[in-house]
Specification:
The structure is a homotetramer.
Chain A: E1 4-5, E2 10-14, E3 21-27, H1 37-47, E4 64-65, E5 69-70, E6 73-74, E7 79-84, H2 104-111, H3 128-144, E8 148-156, E9 159-160, H4 167-174, H5 184-199, E10 206-213, H6 227-235, E11 241-246, H7 257-260, E12 264-267, E13 270-273, E14 281-282, E15 285-286, E16 291-297, E17 307-311, E18 316-320, H8 331-354
Antiparallel strand pairs in A: 1-2, 2-3, 3-7, 4-7, 5-6, 8-9, 8-10, 10-16, 11-16, 12-13, 14-15, 17-18
Chain lengths: 362, 362, 362, 362
């Protein structure tokens, strides 16, 4: 499977940055779910560039649900969502010189030069828009079943947000914030760092941190289809994500077992852990505690400094100076993609475990 | 798919810690590959506990190839490898009290109490032995095609190994070292830290770092089946792995694009990058440079301190003090599992891209 | 996987009879294949109803390739093809009374009443149009590699066509015939039978027979992914197909082994069989001889006689008399769907065996 | 996937006719199912050759459950079942001359001569033994949920059995009959025909007919994963099966829609069909009526007449006269394989639809 992901709930992605439309087919959806198109719209709005800290290529994303929804509810058959590409400037792109940090050169290797190179073609971050549209449906489904997801920028250019506190409250707080940070002073400092990078023709990266509450215990598989494995598989789809860690993640390296283990306690007839260093997952399977993970997001590779490249026609070394409209940071826009991917993966796990009709849809 | 992984080359895992045998079925192998059973044996030897820094449960792993090999060569049909369990002490385990940091409680949730709880059952690290046996075959196949893999302990209990230098040399150096570290003084310090933890009835974690050389460019898929995504999916199968990062990984968070991008240069008619911050992968696809990644390994959860647990029959809080034979660290034993998983995943990518007979087997 | 089929080359289908568009995403296509849109158009033309022997719902099928084709050639990334629905008369359909022989009642069971019931919704034969569009691309690819597929109506309403003779010639003869029969007198008799059924408000079924020439030997898998198994899996997707047989098929029941076995002979340095009772497949794997199979096509269930049905709201027995525009036979239109499905499946087998770039595309 | 089949419930097959063991890994089984080893034994007994009408290679099939069963019940983790090969006579086989009607030549093409040729190697009908062992577990699971499967020989060498009557009664009647025929006089005539063929050094084929009762409605998928498609995919795994038809199957070719459609009636608050020409499936989805299908079984290719073959080393035409122990018919032994495959496929459909724990296991 190349552009299809999932087992019971699957997503198939298609399109290029400068084609007529991009889109997704979401299959395996339980029938009868009420589709709130405004919520899809608001999620796409979160992904869209806003203000000085983002690219000037702003598109309205007037998506169309082509199939799988009838009289406002899912039918159970594949949902195809189309989003037109409107604001394209293909003239900004030429084929000869691959951009460092992008997929231009690897696409050339894989597709022997037949790839649509304009705007990154199929590799463009633009294709996260249909993922967000599909993810919005997944989020609706999970919410109806008491599962909530929230992501904040934990670090950006060395600036830290405050840690997650009361998760329910923090997830609400993040809600539809265009710049998803828990502490306002951190948000301001981060935005300044982005603007500074933009002025320098440069870009910044960071770390996104995600919390999921309400997942039942006993979901996931031992060995190959662990919750960590499948989630990371999908999260690495997000352009610029280069690391994924669960619970303490890389910080486990300096801990001892006595610090890392989460003790178990019975509270109100339910088993909980006294700490949550393992991020809600043991042996690949949910333990009923919040799922916690972080994604490393590399700085946007589209920068305006002079860079080394190779003319693939002549095989001569050349220097490349980008034109066009680019993001000095995409991490704030990537958070809704992380939420979407997470929702789709968890929904798929639930449907595999409890059946395609598992959900309480009303 | 639950205990099966892969697309063209697949691995199916089965068994429990205290069952009669554990094993793996490896399918999709090109026919005609000469099987070196001694190499399988030597890889299993690397996984086995040795000395004071490991568990006293040592097993000989006298594997048997039940199918798929005829007259010393692969036939192209499924290879089943069986490894008997011999040195089991089931009396050390009881069902009532789930061990913190282990899968005992999540297994109870998922399997409603029907799981084989002895020694962790199906979740036992013991099941990495068949993965190593299958991985040895993958490593043989990759070597015949010029691809080499090496892993060292980058960090353990705050002690750092030296970074990778000349990769070919370092991979050879790591070869069949029982404690895979590049700088001898680091190795000694790390081993002391493990022994100290053992004396304290405690355990330590660390970070494994892996390099792959010789992979052709143009392998992997955009979006869902990126090399990062599929590799991390499989790597999270390794018990105790809680984070995976590629290239600079989480360090990207504090870099700017101008530092993170890898410039391109033509060298001898081939395109290379001037740095390798992206770890050999752009847009999910190999660029021909070495693949570099790191796995966070949490401290072994089996420790001898008193821990909080819940009696699942009575739902009363109790304290748990482990008996039995346990590892104060498994990171040095985990490296051969990382190499094995990596080899299996890359082989599968190559077989999907170039066909089941892609390999030069002679 | 629900509406996605294939391993290396995959097809994802979406849409409903009365939605705005129906479509398909074809993934895993080798890059660089020249796309002949006229050929896609001519294949869709073969699927379209013509004349008195078909439904009066005729649509132009002005497909749009939304992605995956750039400057006239495949890029290697997913190809999405959209076909608008224009000529719909939703008023002809109501939900209450399931039509016998259709999927109305089973859709109700599966989707709890949320399905789009208009014109059969997602179950409509209309969705074979995107399959034909995708299949046209597969046929182009196979032709470039010397593989040809042809299907004729072997039997219809008791009338037999002549058997396949020289396959190359017969496949050319069938080419773009709207009524794919090898012997003209049979064609006339069959068409009369269809017209007679139409006058009676009734419908007829038949048998389609397919030949594939040029497939290399050694393709397919033992046991589960036999050529027979995967082909039949896909062929049963075609609405109305209720049986699939290879080589002698059900006629084997009355043969002895001495009649059924195909002797082997060396001809010009190549092994051939003296007969082809096994239809080009032994042990699930191609033997290099023509692949031969037949599909049983049941009579169209949309007929104008009074039929028994149940009002699902009231659970009262009622009688149903269909209105609308229906086909008295679909077998002649189904043949291009059979060719398409066959091409897609064989292409997938070749890509799995020889790699995604296996093809000679120029 | 090559030797693995299924989505939620999967089966992975391995082994060769003359290897030490053959086996299967069954994964995705709900935990807690009581395993009746005697039932597995009795199913293997049905598959085993008996008397004059079968091969003289009789093996006891002393299977071993290596994993996934603990204290007599399934654990929910993979069940590996091993069956030793004991009664092998490898001297009866040589590699040079492929046997007509067998997979010898296609295996040579696919595996380049590295296949284990002894006794058909991986292609041997012997590998149906582990399928039967896995199928026995599936049959236990289905029975606990009110689903029963029965298969009889409908036709053999031109001799017809009586049609299915009252299905519940007939399924019980077939139960553990070594020669599964509903009418005793037909059974005798068929057995005589087999003995006659054996005396002639020849073999016979036939048709198996299967009925499934108790399946709920609404199971299966539209388009690609129809019940017909997935069942036929799996059924063609059975060596010698060359055709599969559902309901009236190929007899639909001569019917009109008015004869073929199954009217709907409400009976006791439930919808039933007045006839069952469609074999319990509409639009690929179960309608709650009995599932009915037939498999064409070709005559055993191992016959003792002189046959044409080609020496693959010399590429010279030669004649081949088989030695060894062979079945003059395998259809009576194949019925338990059909039941097993059917049970595994339907169980997988139920687990996908209703979740891995769908079953009432007590």
């Amino acid at each position: 499977m190349k552009n299809t992901f999932g087992s019971s709930v699957t997503m198939t992605l298609f399109g290029e940055s400068h084609g007529s439309e991009i889109g997704v087919v979401l299959d395996g959806v339980a029938p009868g779910l009420l589709i709130d198109e405004d919520f899809i719209r608001s999620q796409l709005y979160l992904r869209r560039p806003h203000g000085k800290i983002s690219t000037a290529r702003v598109e309205d994303d007037p998506f169309r649900i082509v199939s799988g929804v009838f009289e406002g509810r899912t039918t159970g058959t594949p949902i195809c969502i189309l989003i037109p590409n409107t604001n394209t400037r293909s003239g900004d792109y030429s084929k000869g010189l691959p951009r460092p940090g992008h997929a231009d050169y690897t696409a050339e290797c894989k597709y022997h030069g037949y790839q649509d190179y304009r705007g990154g073609g199929h590799f463009s971050g633009r294709l996260t828009a249909p993922i967000v549209a599909a993810g919005a449906i997944a989020l609706m489904m999970l919410r109806k079943n008491g599962i909530e997801i929230g992501t904040h920028i934990k670090t950006l250019a060395g600036i830290e947000d405050r840690p997650f506190g009361h998760l329910q409250t923090d997830i609400e707080l993040l809600g539809d914030a265009l710049f998803p940070v828990l502490r306002e002073s951190s948000a301001l400092a981060m935005q300044q760092a982005i603007e500074q990078a933009a002025q320098d023709g440069d870009s910044v990266g960071g770390v996104l941190e995600t919390a999921v509450i309400g997942m039942p215990c006993g979901v996931g598989e031992p060995w190959f289809d662990t919750v960590e494995g499948v989630l990371s598989h999908a999260l690495f789809s997000i352009p610029a994500v280069k690391g994924v860690e669960f619970g303490e993640g890389f910080a486990f390296a300096d801990m001892r077992g006595s610090e890392a283990n989460d003790g178990l306690r019975a509270v109100g007839g339910k088993v909980v852990t006294t700490t949550n260093h393992n991020g809600g997952i043991n042996g690949g399977i949910t333990n009923g505690m919040p799922i916690l993970f972080r994604c490393a997001v590399k700085p946007t590779p589209s920068i305006f400094c002079e860079q080394d490249s190779v003319n693939l026609q002549t095989m001569q070394n050349e220097t490349l100076t980008l034109k066009g409209r680019h993001d000095p940071a995409i991490i704030h826009r990537a958070r809704v993609v992380v939420d979407s991917i997470t929702a789709l993966v968890l929904w798929d796990f639930l449907a595999q475990r409890f059946g395609t009709d598992f959900a309480d849809i009303d």
